[in-house]
């Protein structure tokens, strides 16, 4: 029965688009606007998430070594550190390298170093870790190894940063949930108005003896089309607007990390299309149900 | 065809729309429901097509107890009942033809059946020449005829009409009545709620009088 009549349902849905062109355009414009707002927030949130990740990845542990460490002990220590879970990269910085860096950092004032006869800087390992949350645990473990003079990881800075990113992420999720919820309400209300405009048809069909699914299908298809078309429009508009904005930002701040990979942006497009289509379908289904009880 | 046993209907605002209704309407009968506004005429009609369920009592339509009818089966009950409303309930963005074909399509008729039936009923009510016209461009009497054509298009056993001549002049009203008699003669049971004294007296059919939710009179060949 359903597939037998699919042609009829589609014709009815499309006819309704044509019969009330103005209403359909208004509906699509409204839904498009709301989806654009949701999409903008999603774009902002993936970019800030990338920014936070970048920030967190700059946290590293510096392990200063005792001066009397032998070559064998050095290799041993390195493999011990590498074997700890959650280590991304371990880089050795020799005494000479440290000295060179310092003189580079000092720039024009590097003459100060000439007053010192022996290189006072210790050799060290620079450890990058996968998950910044466990930085303290890893630092404590490394500190227990032999020939380790001191471990440094900017404890307070790390804690403050992690606190900040945690709150920022939670707040973002909350706002996102609220925004999606609000958009579902608004879109289904817009759909409800289009169904309300045709409540006579629903009543007449119901009194003529049409089954409720027969009545619902054209509306479901229409709701889907309205949601889907709006979603496509919003995605196209967002995409163009986003890359325009990215270009402008990069002209002003060239090194700001921004999501520009299409693969990373794809989930946002999919989310918008799903949101539009699903709410269109469900919104019309429930709205028709309300007018079916004649 | 229709039987009611001790039927009561109370609306949520505590109004007793119907009280202890007992009635038996046989197949092929023509029955006028008369009585002042608010007497319960429309409520009685709604019970028959299961627009509402009785608060108490039994309503049997074509052997089916409508109170026990599962929602999924309501459409199939309604396919045996044609309904004509005082306010027409036409789709004004569709043609005369489409208004009738719409209802037929809704109950799963094939395109061939639809073409045949629409042509037949349009001929019967004399609107064949207006088939491509939108309803707001035809007269009130013609709109009422269109409603009747739509209601009988799938040849229902029962035709319910709620004041079908309410807004029409006496000449057009009589034309509508003649049309309904014609449909009745072909075997359709007709129940017509009406205030139209002139028509009822002229028709000499069974008259059921309602007052404040009770049947106070039920006479064959009655008058208003």
Straight-line distance between termini of chain A = 23 Å
Helix content of chain B: 25-40%
Largest sheet: number of strands, sense, barrel closure of chain A:
4 strands, antiparallel
Biggest sheet record of chain B: 6 strands, mixed
Task: Give the helix tally of chain B.
Answer: 7
The share of residues in extended strands of chain A comes to 5-15%
Query: Using DSSP, what is the number of strands of chain B?
Result: 10
How many β-strand runs of chain A? 4
Structural class of chain A: alpha+beta
What would your notes on this structure say?
- The complex is a heterodimer of chains A (294) and B (224).
- Chain A is of the alpha+beta class and 294 residues long.
- Chain A has two domains: 6-55 and 161-292, no CATH class; 60-152, Alpha-Beta Plaits.
- Helix content of chain A is 71%, strand content 8%.
- Chain A has helices spanning 6-19, 21-57, 71-82, 95-106, 135-144, 155-196, 199-208, 212-252, 262-292; strands at residues 60-65, 87-93, 124-129, 148-152.
- Chain A has a four-stranded antiparallel beta sheet with strand order 2-3-1-4.
- In chain A, helix 2 (21-57) runs antiparallel to helix 6.
- The radius of gyration of chain A is 31 Å and the shape is elongated.
- The model of chain A has no long low-confidence stretch (mean pLDDT 87).
- Chain B is α/β, with parallel strands linked by helices.
- In chain B, a hairpin with a 5-residue loop joins strand 1 and strand 2 (16-25).
- Helix content of chain B is 33%, strand content 26%.
- Chain B folds into two domains: 25-52 and 64-80 and 157-224, Rossmann fold, CATH 3.40.50.300; 84-155, no CATH class.
- The two termini of chain B are 24 Å apart.
- Chain B contains seven helices and ten strands.
- The mean pLDDT of chain B is 91.
- In chain B, helix 4 crosses helix 5 (140-152).
- The longest helix of chain B is centred in the C-terminal third of the chain and has 16 residues, at 170-185.
- Chain A binds chain B through residues 1, 5, 8, 19, 200-201, 203-212, 214-215, 294, and chain B through 49, 51, 71-72, 75-79, 81, 83, 89, 91, 93, 102-108, 150, 154.
